[in-house]
Write a structure and sequence with these properties.
534 residues, alpha/beta, Purple Acid Phosphatase, chain A, domain 2, 2 domains, seven-stranded mixed beta sheet, 21 strands, globular
Amino acid sequence: MKLNNKFKLFYVFIFFNMASLSMGMGDRDFLAKNNEIFGKKEINKKKKRKLSINLEDVLSKDNSEIINNSETEFDLKEELGSNNQDFFIKKGGGNYSERKIIEHKKFLTFFEFEENYNKKNELDSQEFRLVLQEYIRLSRKNIGESSNFIGNKAIDGRFFEFENRDYGCSGVLDVFFGQKIILDDNSKIAMHADIHADLDALLELVQDFINKGHLDKSNPFKIKDKNLKIFFLGDYVDRGDNSFEVVYFLMRIFIENPGQVFLLRGNHENVSENIDFNFASKVIDSIGNFDNISKFYNTLPSFVFAGVKEDGGNKINYILFTHGGLEPRFNPHLLLSDSRSSVFQIIDKLDLSWLKRRNGCDNIFEKFRKFYGDRISNIILSRDLGFMWSDFIIEKLGLINNNYIEYSERGIGSFSFCHSATLDLLKAYSSENYKVVSIFRGHQHHGMRFLLANCYGIYNSWIKNNGLKKEEDVDKLEFTLNEEFPVWTLGMPVRGQIKLVKYMLNTYAILNLSGEFKDWKLNGFNCKRVIKTN
């Protein structure tokens, strides 16, 4: 029997009055926490507690779910929000098993979000928390399922449990994983690197995407082109002033476009870096709980191999999208050879010895072993993971550097790879059925800033003339792809760091994947920079 809204409201009212008769300490805590939902009147401990519910205000700051009735008894399919999971216990006077009713809250529109920023209003912390909850819920559909992972080894569900308690950082462990996807040969990939809390640069990117028809003008969180994927290459926070707003935007565009937005993990998506750059303290001051930001970080793949079948055949050309660079101690072959069009793999241990076991790679193993020493095999630590930390040796005057690997200026665990080391490792990554042909990344700006600026924001360390075909139009650059020179670095927006107008860059690239690798087209674009004065 279906009940109309008046009866539903009546039964909800009756339920909470009945529930109030047998409340213990936990129930009183529940009422105190959810005072805003239920409009709780003054409580007389010796009298029956009276509650009233306004269904229009049913989604409080603490809850994304609310109770509804079934016939004349109440069954709760899921707790009233994760913050109340301790309060709903089966009691003698009622039959409460769990039932879920979701009231969808309307998040800020893009234009409300932009207006708040332009008015210098802080992003509402509760809005941020609700969006973060929804983002984690959607992410869990993919990376929370063991069947989506190599070896059915998925991420522990505890990494997705959103905490509403207010406390600092309890030391949520990092989890690292990678992804492989197969794309249609008419796909286009847009990519942008190292936003570093520069919301102005992100809004400029949005406007450029709207102008070019990539985003919906009426809802700029929405991608218009079904063939377009957008890759953000990590380092979303720190350095700038708007880490919260940048993360909020990225979560919103991810939520609006399932399967079209890829958020990679950079070395700054890391609590130790956030402490150094004071973002950790800002998180605790604003939303009270750094663990939830850590859980956002743990939804981000450290790399994505995006593959396209060549000429409709079985051979696949892969592009490695990452923040930093290479990781010789990770064996990608289980991932790359898997028949699924989308699959993930946990990275829980690094082991260089896979190179020694692979045919024709003995010499590569020996070269890398000299540098990694006793770090050939170890449990993964964030500082160790080359996908997030590695660099490439900058060649000078077109000369190929003779050093195979150099220690990076970033410190312990970080290495820089020369041209020959890179080609050797990509060869080891490849097989008869697939080949890794290009790498797109960000991360490396120290020592490269003027190179990036002179190349209009996209730089290839080893190719003559940077592979640039067309130099006269800074707003639309065309590059030649070449397997022999596979690494492309995108610069970070350099507002205010380089004073010359020529270098006020905000660069993104679009890669068209039609046809064979030799037919792929790489174009670079520079958004119109808006110079603001305080």
